[in-house]
Here is the input.
Amino acid sequence: MKQTIVAGLALVCALAGTFSALAQEVKAPRSYRLTAEDEAFWKLIPRNASLKTMGSGFGFTEGPVWDRAGYLWVSDEEINKIFRLYPDGHREEMIALGDPDGNTYDREHRLLDCASVLRAIIRLTPDGRSYKVLADRYEGQRFNSPNDVVLGPDGAIYFTDPTLDLPKGEKQEIPFQGVYRLDSSGKVTLLTKELSQPNGLAFTPDGKKLFVDDSDKRTIWVYDFHPDGTVSNGRIFGKEDGADGEGVPDGMRFDRAGHLFVTGPRGIWVWSQSGKHLGTIELPEQPANLSWGGKDDSTLYITATKSVYILPTLTHGFIPYE
Here is the structure.
């Protein structure tokens, strides 16, 4: 009898240990929280800022672009469509497109999209129902999978081309992951190929520097930008470390004062001009990209996994195409 009791106790202990280990593996649900690393953070984000859900039930959201008409462009990489999302949550399907990613406007407010399956930079027609391929090759070789795009101070289009969304079964033709410039004549120029997986990118408000993050290395790079559309002196601006599964540097935007907002582990990291991490906007879902908009460009529109969130700020966004 005693042996039976001892054996039973051993089994209970073993099961308890197993359940404890499993419990440790289950991650606590994420929630919205503002975490300041410096008091300057509160000059940009209200302490009582309320996070609102603009839309949910998507597959995987990306490429937010606010339009003055009162809607947000949103790419859905899993549903393979681009939508117009309205403040009341209503969404309007515009075009079906294999794995659309980052978006921006050109100076004529025509939507530019990184079309991963097409392996191209495309421009949608004004009605949003069709598109034109602007570029899909560099020196005769197909791009990998264009990821994010921004309008430069010179009016040219700048974009990243990692292999993150290289279509399954297709061959990588360019033997590196580059950052490119596309001018109005259709000429594609390589700016740099030193990043492992270049992703989000943004120009400073004064147009003198180009920032690009490397999702693979979790680093943010900065380059000096020149009037002829070239860059030089690439160096690391900051690093966004986090646990596996918490997210990596992705989309980025500047405010008019030069603060950098970058998606990263658990949310959006806010950086000073000097490279100091001021704080993090932690979100219920992992964000991939963000955009300024609203009446006075003080609202952040955030694409985060299956949802789109809205957050009021105390600053004003820098919008390159305006």
Summary: The longest helix spans residues 2-25. Residues 32 and 140 are 46 Å apart (CA to CA). The chain has one helix and 27 strands. The two ends are 83 Å apart (CA to CA).
